[in-house]
Amino acid sequence: MRSWSGVKTVLVFTAVAFVLDQLLRVSSRDVWSMTDWFGLRARWPGDGFTFNLFFVPQLVTYGLVHADFGHIFWNMIGLWIFGAETDATQGRASFLRFYIGAVVFAGLVYWLLGITGVLSPFTPVVGASGGVSALLVYFVLRDPHRMIMLIFPPVPIPAWLLGGVFLFPDMIGFARQLQTGGAGGGSAHQAHLAGAVFGYLWFRHGDFIARWGTRRKIEKQVVNLEKVDDNRREMDRILAKIQASGLSSLDKKEKSFLEQRSQEFRKGKRS
């Protein structure tokens, strides 16, 4: 798996999830599906306390689950068309951060709109459309005049027009969703548009997820270095006190500090 590209990794995991879902549907006579547990929803249908406590892992898993073959087919076609070049130029790790980040961001917007009551909180969302929308927007912004050959009908159109063809219906659908508070014909327009926003942010700011992780790592290292410096100064002070007044002059706090540093030193030598 380490040699797989980012697109191949997503394709394989998504395909495996789809096959498992179909097997589960057949074995349960279509009573149960992975959508029930891995699709993202704000609340569970029913009375009483219905808040969905599993929404955090579902922010990722919903992107692996699809409603039917047509759903997964077109999403994976979009992933391959718009993701392969991004994967090749950015590298596997950056591509996966981009794609998974877009899926999570789109899911979080969907969840927030549901939990606040703006849209239906009970309808689960599934599919990789949020991530694919991000890849589409990033692809279009990088080269808006690139000619893309459509499948149906087989005619070439510029990338910017293709982006409009895909996103304009989502804008109309989302506006209708806001008016009715419904699911908008079974399509998660809000997740698609949120993914498009993420793609724009990635185009403008690059791999900000990696930069955030690097900044956090540097901040942690700075804190650790400052702690080491503080410990060294405290150790010098205690040793000077011992030299001047003897070990018996230390209070409980100073003795505890000295013992702790001694244990860390012995542990470091053993390792």
List the helices and strands and how they pair.
Elements: H1 6-27, H2 35-38, H3 55-61, H4 69-90, H5 92-115, H6 129-142, E1 147-149, E2 156-158, H7 159-180, H8 189-205, H9 208-245, H10 252-270
Antiparallel strand pairs: 1-2
Helix pairs in contact: 1-4, 3-5, 4-5, 4-6, 5-6, 5-8, 6-7, 6-8, 7-8
Description:
This protein is 70% helix and 2% strand. The chain has helices at residues 6-27, 35-38, 55-61, 69-90, 92-115, 129-142, 159-180, 189-205, 208-245, 252-270; strands spanning 147-149, 156-158. It folds into two domains: 6-206, Up-down Bundle (Rhomboid-like fold); 214-270. It has 271 residues and is mostly helical. 28% of the residues are buried. The mean pLDDT is 85. The protein contains ten helices and two strands; from the N terminus they run H-H-H-H-H-H-E-E-H-H-H-H. The protein is elongated, with a radius of gyration of 26 Å. The chain starts with 5 loop residues before the first helix and ends with a helix. It has a two-stranded antiparallel sheet with strand order 1-2.
